[in-house]
Specification:
TIM Barrel; 10 helices; 8-stranded parallel beta sheet; alpha/beta; De-COase2_N; Type III PLP-dependent enzyme; 19 strands; Lyase, Ornithine Decarboxylase, Chain A, domain 1; De-COase2_CS; pyridoxal phosphate
């Protein structure tokens, strides 16, 4: 795993601050964004997925560095506008957006959307005439993804062709094709499958005199959790090679990338303390004061296994298998894991723990006051900020 920033390291080792709390380094997220841009050799436009972490300071920083923004709701559109993102650089990818939501986007200058059904194309034509539309194609291969996105999203190849034709007849502009290979995708080859399918669809669309200007590669690029993943450069190499193979010049479409987790996951950590170590007939339970509910670690229920360390205990000490839990009296407040967690034999109440790579999704998925436990305080660090060292606590929105 890449070494955390000095600022995150300081938080991880500072015992003066009461737990639980989280720390997020915008500079680390910006560096991850720039690594992606470099890895794709400037051939892919990065369109950060706001849902992954919508901190206003983060969005503003990314927009200043040239990132477009992917949104899914009026609330996220407003956040993007507040970050001074030009409306033409905002894309709404919610394939279930209703007429009210579409009207809000239209009235604020957002005119790029995604559709995967006849109903959505017709709704766009009625509410947002002349808008640009990406047709989202289903990705049915679930291998390699912690959270496959099959079933609910995307259409078949035949449907994609029909939707493209319907969009053209309805006065919409076909922007291109999009897909999602699954969240936390460990297998870069899944993009090659999707690109090959997009090439087949493109050939059929061209037979009708239409062009596919863009390929939206979607999200899925991973963060660093307990299982090692290839570097961004490996993903970029496979993706760009597949595009060159299946879309030879001069008919090569522009590429769009929608990272979320890959930009922000590793830029955040959660600091916790051990509340109790309890031996049961079925094993040992380590209860932490940061859990799925109050620290927003609900991604764990979707297959994300967070790396957890206990810095007060040196590496190499004797350990034993344990089950990690949050502080609430709810059985779901338990860290699920295919590979059992281990903790030092000497671990005791009061010891500090660090939950790594919690920068994605956690800040907006905490439950307010469940079991009387408030959401954990969040601390942001912005690069070159005159208040960076004051470590301001960010208020939570209900």
């Amino acid at each position: 795993m890449k070494a955390p920033s000095p600022w995150l390291t300081r938080f991880a080792t500072d015992r003066r601050r009461p737990t639980p709390f989280t720390a997020f380094d915008i500079g680390e997220a910006l560096a991850a964004y720039e690594r992606l841009v470099a890895a794709f050799e400037g051939r892919a436009r990065v369109q950060y997925a706001v849902k992954a972490r919508p901190d206003q300071a983060l969005l503003t920083t990314l927009v200043r560095r040239g990132s477009a923004l992917d949104v899914a709701s009026p609330g996220e559109i407003q956040q993007a506008l507040d970050a001074r993102c030009p409306p033409e650089d905002i894309a709404c990818s919610n394939v279930f957006a209703d007429a009210r939501e579409l009207a809000f986007a239209r009235d604020n200058g957002v005119m790029v959307f995604t559709a995967d059904s006849t109903a959505m194309v017709e709704r766009l034509a009625a509410v947002c005439p002349g808008a640009s539309v990406f047709v989202r194609v289903a990705h049915e291969h679930t291998a390699g993804a912690a959270q496959p996105l099959t079933g609910r999203f995307g259409c078949s190849e035949n449907e994609a062709v029909q939707l493209a034709l319907l969009a053209a007849r309805s006065g919409l502009r076909l922007a291109g094709l999009s897909w999602h290979v699954g969240s936390q995708q460990h297998d870069p080859a899944q993009w090659e499958r999707a690109i090959a399918r997009a090439a087949r669809i493109t050939r059929r669309i061209r037979c009708h005199g239409m062009t596919v200007e863009h390929l939206n590669l979607g999200g899925g690029l991973p963060g660093t959790y307990r299982t090692s993943v290839p570097p961004a450069e490996a993903y970029a190499r496979i993706i760009l090679t597949a595009v060159d193979r299946h879309f030879p010049h001069p008919h090569q479409p522009h590429l769009v990338l929608e990272p979320g987790r890959a930009v922000v996951a590793d830029a955040g950590i959660t600091i916790t303390s051990v509340k109790a170590v309890v031996d049961r007939p079925c094993g040992t339970y380590v209860v932490l004061d940061a859990g799925l509910y109050n620290a927003g670690l609900l991604d764990n229920l979707g297959g994300i296994e967070y790396r957890v360390t206990f810095p007060g205990h040196p590496e190499g000490v004797a350990t034993r298998p344990v089950t990690l839990c949050g502080p609430t009296c709810d059985s779901l407040d338990t860290f699920t894991a295919d590979n059992v967690y281990h903790a030092p034999l000497a671990l005791a109440p009061g010891d500090r723990g660090v939950i790594w790579s919690t920068g994605a999704y956690c800040s907006t998925s905490t439950l307010v006051g469940f079991n009387g436990y408030p959401p954990v305080p969040q601390h942001l660090h912005a690069p070159r900020s005159d208040v960076a060292d004051r470590l301001p606590e960010q208020p939570k929105k209900s």
